Amino acid sequence: MAMGGGETSGELPFFVYGTLRPGEVNHDLFLKGRTAAEEAARLPGALLYDGPGYPYAVPRAGSEIVGELITAAPGTYGRLLAELDRLEEYHGPGRPLNVYDRVRREAVRPDGTRVPAWVYLAAPLLERRLRESGTEIPGGDWFRR
């Protein structure tokens, strides 16, 4: 299985903040029965915008978003990574067709420990549009929109 350059940094958990969170539609479709752990977490330095049935996260100092850290079950990581990239319309670093970019960020567990994780952030063109005219989700929690 080929991975893009710089992405072979081991099997990182995923920080999810929208429809992939437990109880949401894409969690059932993509993650149910395929995770080793799901735990509450926060993502500092990010802001959440409302989207058409799902949210977008963008970088923003001083803000944080609420979500879960998802660890893939043994043997499922490669397929899960490919399926989530497809779901999030991520075609590789810096690709113009990306809706989201998959980036490495540090999520924070409730006990304060920091964990490197993959997170899907709105791609630059979309990010600019959101900053100009998007609707922020106060408190950064999709469940409380």
Automatic annotation (TrEMBL):
What start-end ranges are recorded for coiled-coil regions in this protein? none
Q: Which residues form the Gamma-glutamylcyclotransferase AIG2-like domain?
A: 14-142
Note the Gene3D superfamilies from the entry: Gamma-glutamyl cyclotransferase-like (3.10.490.10)
InterPro entries attached to this UniProt entry: AIG2-like_dom (IPR009288), GGCT-like (IPR013024), GGCT-like_sf (IPR036568)
Give the top-rank taxon of the lineage listed in the UniProt record for this protein: Bacteria
What SUPFAM superfamilies has UniProt attached to this entry? Gamma-glutamyl cyclotransferase-like
Q: Which Pfam families match?
A: GGACT
Question: What is the protein's given name?
Answer: Gamma-glutamylcyclotransferase
